[in-house]
C-alpha cells in the first residue's frame, strides 16, 4: 500500500468512515510508540517527500507493514515524543469522533446511561504530570469507556452490527490482532528493559481504550445519518448558521462564532487572528484599490471617525493585505461518494486604515476589498463597507483566502518545513556539543509530525486535498515555494526583521497589533537566553570561528546534498565567524519551532468555525457590489464543515511541553547555565503577566492568547 493509500485509509474524512478512520489513526500511533523503542538512531536527508525540500528520511518498517497492511514508518530513535504526548493525541482523536458522531445523531446519541461530557477525566491540554498520575488518567478513561460499553443500547447495536460483519471486517478484531502481532515482533526483553511498570500499564490500557473506541466507531459510522429524529436538518443545499453551530457538541464552539460578521473584528483578525503575518503598510497608490476620497471619508464616518484619504496617506495610516502570492493556485474540486463539487480560490487585496492620532479610539478598520472579475481578467471589482450583503461575502472570501495562505504558507511552509532541515546535521553533532544540546529539545516530535504532514495531510485524498480551495498539487507546490522563500534568505527571517520588512514596527501608526507586541516579548526572552547560553561556551568570535563541528554543521545546511539553505551564516554560505550571527540563527530556529508555530497552530481552534474561516468557497465570487445573495450560500457543506472541525481540532488542541521548561537531562550541572536558564524562565513569566494585562485592554477586541508563554510548546510536535 502506498502513502497515498495511507492518506485515504487514515485521514480522508468521508461521511461513512470518519469515526473508523480516527480510531485507526489512534491505533497507528500506539503501534509507532511501541515499535519506536526498537528503531536505529539514523539520520539522513530525503528530497522526494516534498521535492525539492530537505526532510528527514523515515524508512518503512516492512515486517510490521505485512501485519497491519499499510505503511508503518521507522522513526530515528528518540524522535517519537513521550507517552504523555501519545495520550494527549489519543484523547483528542476520541473527542473528535465522539463530537462528530453526536452532532450527526449517530447511534452513540442513543446511549442514555452515560453523560458524554464526563467521558474525559482530564482536558487534553493538561500540563506535565507524573507517570503515576498519567496512569490514573488513562485508567479512568478506560473505566469510563467500559461503562459506556455496557450501556444496553450500545450492546444492542453492537450485537446487531456484529451479525452483519465478518471477522475480516470487524475493526475491533482487526486492531486486537494487529496489536498482538506487532508485540510478538519485538523481543520481550527490549520492552522490559525500556518500559517501567507504570508505562506498561498505561500502554495496556491505551490498547483497551483504542479497542473500545473501535467498537463505538463502528456503531457511529454504521448509524450515521440513518435516524429521523435529528434536531438538526443536515441539508447540504441550505444550511444556516445554526446548523454550523450545532456541530459542536462536546468540543467548544469557538468564540469567533459570536462576532465574526462585525467589520472591526474582520480587521482585528489581520493583527490578532490565525494569520497576522500578511498585513503590511500601504506605500503607494494601487490601481486595484480605486477608493475615492469621498468613499474613504464616508467609510471612516461609518466607524465614527473624521478622516480624509489624503491625511491617511500622508500619515502612513493605511495598511494592506495582499494575497497575490496565491496567484498560481487554481480552483480545486471536492469529490465525495455522492457528487463532485467545484471549489473556488481567489486572490483579493484588502485595504485597512487606522484613525488619526487624536481620535477617541484607534482600531484598525476595513476600507475596501478588491479582486479580479475572473482569473484572467484585468478588471478588478471593488467592495466597501458601504455595500450591502455583497460586502459580507467579500469579507468571507478574504477569510477563505487568508485561511489557505495560513495553512500552506504561514503554517506548513514557514514553520514546519523551515525547521526540518536543521534536524539531521544537529543530530550528527557530538552529543556534548552546545548547539546540539540546546536545539534537540526544540525538535522533539517534529520528524513524526512532518512525515504525517506530507504523507497524510497534503497527500492526494488527504485533508488538504479535501478541504482547501485549490488542487493538492498546487497546494504542495505553494508550501514548498513558501519554505524556499525563507530558507533561501535565512539571514532575513528573524522575527524583528519580518516585522520591519512589512513596515509594521511603528506603534504610533499601528497601535494595536497583538502578534507584533507579544511576539517581541517572546523573541527578546529567547534571544537573551541564547546569548547567555553561548557566552558560557564561546568566549569570543574566534572561538566560534575555530569550532570545526559548528562549521561542518553550517556547511551541511547550505549544501545541495544537505539542508539546501541560502544566505545563511556570517558569509551567507554557512560559515560562522561571530557570536552575534550564531545567536541570531539559533534564536530564529527556536522562535520558529516554538512561538511562531504556536501562533499559527493553536489559532486553528478558532478556525474550526467554518462560517468565519471557510477553507474553500463553493460559489463563484460575486461580480456586482449590489448582489443580494447571502455569503452563507457559498460556504462548505455541513459534511465538509464537520471535517474541518475534526482536522483543525486535532492540530490545534494538543499542547505538549512548554517553552523554557527543559527536561532535567537536557543540560549537565552548570551553575552559569542554571543562572541563565532561571533568567529565561523569569523573563517568560514576566511576559506572561504583561500579555495578560494587555488582553484586558479594550483595544484588544478579543484576547490574544496564542503567545502566552504557558501556551507555547518547545517544539513543533503537532
Describe the structure in brief.
The chain has helices spanning about 5-10, 20-35, 60-70, 85-105, 130-150, 150-165, 170-185, 190-195, 195-225, 240-245, 265-270, 295-300, 310-315, 390-420, 425, 435-440, 445-455, 465, 470-485, 495-500, 515-535, 540-545, 550-560, 580-600, 640-655, 670-695, and strands spanning about 45, 55, 280, 320, 335, 340, 350-355, 365-370, 380-385. It is mostly helical and about 725 residues long. The chain has a 5-stranded antiparallel beta sheet.
What are its keywords?
mainly alpha; Nuclear Transport Factor 2, Chain: A; five-stranded antiparallel sheet; two-stranded antiparallel ribbon; 26 helices; globular
Description:
This protein has 26 helices and nine strands. The protein is globular, with a radius of gyration of 26 Å. Among the domains are: 11-37 and 80-226 and 238-246, no CATH class; 259-401, Nuclear Transport Factor 2, Chain: A, CATH 3.10.450.60. Strand 1 (45-46) and strand 2 (55-56) form a beta hairpin. Helix 7 packs antiparallel against helix 9 (197-223). It has a five-stranded antiparallel sheet. Strands 1-2 form a two-stranded antiparallel sheet. The two termini are 25 Å apart. It has helices at 3-11, 18-36, 62-68, 83-103, 131-149, 152-164, 171-185, 188-194, 197-223, 241-245, 263-272, 293-302, 309-314, 389-419, 423-427, 434-439, 446-457, 463-467, 472-487, 495-501, 514-537, 541-545, 548-558, 579-601, 638-653, 671-695, and strands at residues 45-46, 55-56, 280-281, 318-322, 333-335, 340-342, 349-353, 365-372, 380-383.
